[in-house]
Amino acid sequence: MGSSEIYDFENTEAEIYYNNLIYTASADGQICVDKLQELAKYPEITEEKFLDILCEFRDIGVDILPYRDYPFNEEHYKNMLRELRSKETERRANTKRGEDPIGLYFQEIEALPVLSGNAERDIIFDIADGDEDKKETLIECCMFIPVETAYRYSNTNILFLDLVQEGNMELMTAADEFDYNMSISFIAYAAFRISRRIMELTDAEAETLRLPSELAESVAKILDANKKSMRENGKELTDEELSVKLDIPTQKIKSAKEVIERFNSIDKTAPQYCDSENSGNGEADSESYFSVGDISSLME
Fold first, then answer.
1. pTM score of the predicted model
2. Of 12, 83, 196, 198, which is most buried by a Cβ count within 10 Å?
3. Does residue 76 share a domain with residue 153?
4. What is the pLDDT of residue 52?
5. Do both 10 and 92 map to the same domain?
6. Are 123 and 260 contained in the same domain?
7. Nearest-angstrom CA–CA distance, 270 and 272
8. 285 shares a domain with 166
């Protein structure tokens, strides 16, 4: 089965990458999960299409291996920990002095069983035969995948362990939804889903609008006041009415409404607005955050 039989590519970059994968894997007889994981960044490659790709590798006899340097040794995690510590020192300001949550988590990961050789295949066969207890073993063996994936996307405002937690939840969902009778790599399937989930989170974070706290508070107050006015009177308040009601200068009302207008036409699912208090000295942070969807969400 050739690539053209799986689906029609709509993205030349995706086609080039996929064809290179096929060529390299066919020549070597094997491929590492991290190479397949890169397919998650192409939106047109759905979960269903990715499963087709895994089936193609199965049919042409390509072995799918874990990450290139797996099983990871202690030095691997030490290097990762060193870099993450430097990135997250300020963002972990609420952590008690002396605590090292990432280091402690890495110790737990290092203690988990290694999924080497034919172990993955054997576990999958056991689960297919009805041994549901082996599913927990499979999840434990694969908990290094969320760590490796989160590390790739650690240059964001989302804490590393928050990304790992999301990855762990996606791993458990993948274990429940995987078809163990397909005789394909669960590691690759889980890595793809975890990558896609973490990319969704980081993409949403990248669309966050950072505002001075005072302006963010004004935006929230205006939206709330207008929602109430629409319910009670069927119309929004004028700038002057808002100024009087909220005790906010008219010019600041206008500035806040410019922010609202900027995102008024964007329709996205939004997290709640929150005023961040992450500074190490215990004082409120000077900035607050709105996702691009918060505006439309508050206006509903």
1. 0.65
2. 198
3. yes
4. 92
5. yes
6. no
7. 6
8. no
Number of separate domains in the chain: 2
Cβ contacts of residue 23 below 8 Å, gap of 6+?
A: none
Q: Which tens digits make up the pLDDT trace of 147-182?
A: 989 988 877 778 888 899 999 999 999 999 999 999
287 φ/ψ angles, rounded to the nearest 5 degrees: -130, 150
Residue 284 has a CB neighbour count (10 Å cut-off) of: 12
| Residues 82, 18 share a domain | yes
Give 282-289's long-range contacts (Cβ < 8 A, gap of 24+).
284/213, 285/213, 286/212, 286/213, 287/210, 287/211, 287/212, 287/213, 287/216, 288/210, 288/211, 288/212, 288/213, 288/216, 288/217, 289/208, 289/209, 289/210, 289/211, 289/216
Domain identity same for 156 and 291: no
Rounded mean pLDDT, 195-201:
92
Question: pLDDT (tens digit, 9 = 90+) per residue, 222-280?
Answer: 888 988 888 888 888 999 999 999 999 888 888 888 777 765 533 333 333 444 444 33
The label of the residue with tokens 């609420």 reads: 94
Residue with tokens 């200068």: 249
Find the domain containing 213 and state its range. Answer: 208-299
